[in-house]
């Protein structure tokens, strides 16, 4: 039996409700495929911030640097300003552990009604590769003349050649491994005059190394429209940190609900642990009711198994999700059902 040490960070809100279901399903698949987990649970959260003034202890990241993975729920709660909670926990993990790829699949499952009429499952099945370490998410800038009529706020965007090239490389390699071999770049080089023309140049230069990949690019504004009107056009979509963030809520919404969307914050070189978390947040509007959809968390667990080198175990989880949805098994309200979080988690564990 192979044992993996995983840091578990339920975090805030529905994170605390969906993480146990993720663990339930990982345990079920582990029993079947002879994989064991040592769960190292952390209370890093807004609650902790209120008690101690920090989202996580000062030496927190040192303590999990050698772990095999990080399984996170969601971070953020209305009692703590979002920039404090997120820059105190989620973003430092992504950066310290050089998780520069945020991989987010988008797929319409059989048995799920897309809000876009007449879309069949094969029509929506693509991957978003989001740059996860730099770009529009930067701490550079500042606020001058605060509170006066002359107030000025400046936010710098940071795009480094290394940072852009490494995420593009990942996206090209991913496109290369897929049957359609098609890569789309999200840009805005008509309006963002320094960084986006640079992004386009890097993209065009790298495309030369991949002659059999079909490439195209769209400005982010029309790209959001194409996600709704032509989701079948996409195979792999690569974007900067902010563009990737926006596209990765839109894509899953087009497949019915963001409640099923998973993500992998990857350190492709495996120098550090990677982190697996659903795309959604802590959902304060439904937290505490036990009705959150756990599929995004559970599918994130499948992505973790894939990364750890267990593609068959990962596949078993995705197959269970496919069956549950196709066979009209229990589903939560965001998918038109009445089941609660635990019922969906248990049904998936049983299918495994
Ligand atoms: P959200 O994703 O938490 O919620 C948006 C809407 O989607 C809400 O109506 C919510 O009820 C619904 N929803 C989300 N997940 C669901 C699920 N699993 N099942 C059913 N419905 C679901 O986004 P928000 O409201 O913008 O953010 C709330 C908090 O979460 C904020 O503090 C935000 O910063 C944080 N956040 C954290 C992460 C993360 O940890 N990675 C991601 C996004 C938002
Ligand atoms: C996500 C979230 C985070 C992000 C927020 C909460 C900082 O929206 O993981 O998509 O923008 O990266
Ligand atoms: Mn987001």
Automatic annotation (TrEMBL):
EC number: 1.1.1.83, 1.1.1.93, 4.1.1.73
Top-rank taxon: Bacteria
Cofactor section: Mg(2+); Mn(2+); K(+)
Biochemical pathway: Carbohydrate acid metabolism; tartrate degradation; 2-hydroxy-3-oxosuccinate from L-tartrate: step 1/1; Carbohydrate acid metabolism; tartrate degradation; 2-hydroxy-3-oxosuccinate from meso-tartrate: step 1/1; Carbohydrate acid metabolism; tartrate degradation; D-glycerate from L-tartrate: step 1/1
Sequence ranges assigned to domain Isopropylmalate dehydrogenase-like in this UniProt record: 5-348
Assigned keywords, A-Z: Manganese, Metal-binding, NAD, Oxidoreductase
Pfam families the record matches: Iso_dh
Single GO MF descriptor: NAD binding
InterPro entries in UniProt: ICDH/IPMDH (IPR050501), IsoCit/isopropylmalate_DH_CS (IPR019818), IsoPropMal-DH-like_dom (IPR024084), TTC_DH (IPR011829)
Catalytic activity: (R)-malate + NAD(+) = pyruvate + CO2 + NADH; (2R,3R)-tartrate + H(+) = (R)-glycerate + CO2; (2R,3R)-tartrate + NAD(+) = 2-hydroxy-3-oxosuccinate + NADH + H(+); tartrate + NAD(+) = 2-hydroxy-3-oxosuccinate + NADH + H(+)
Function statement: Has multiple catalytic activities. Apart from catalyzing the oxidation of (+)-tartrate to oxaloglycolate, also converts meso-tartrate to D-glycerate and catalyzes the oxidative decarboxylation of D-malate to pyruvate.
Family: Belongs to the isocitrate and isopropylmalate dehydrogenases family.
Protein name: D-malate dehydrogenase [decarboxylating]
Provenance organism: Caenispirillum bisanense
Organism ancestry: Bacteria, Pseudomonadati, Pseudomonadota, Alphaproteobacteria, Rhodospirillales
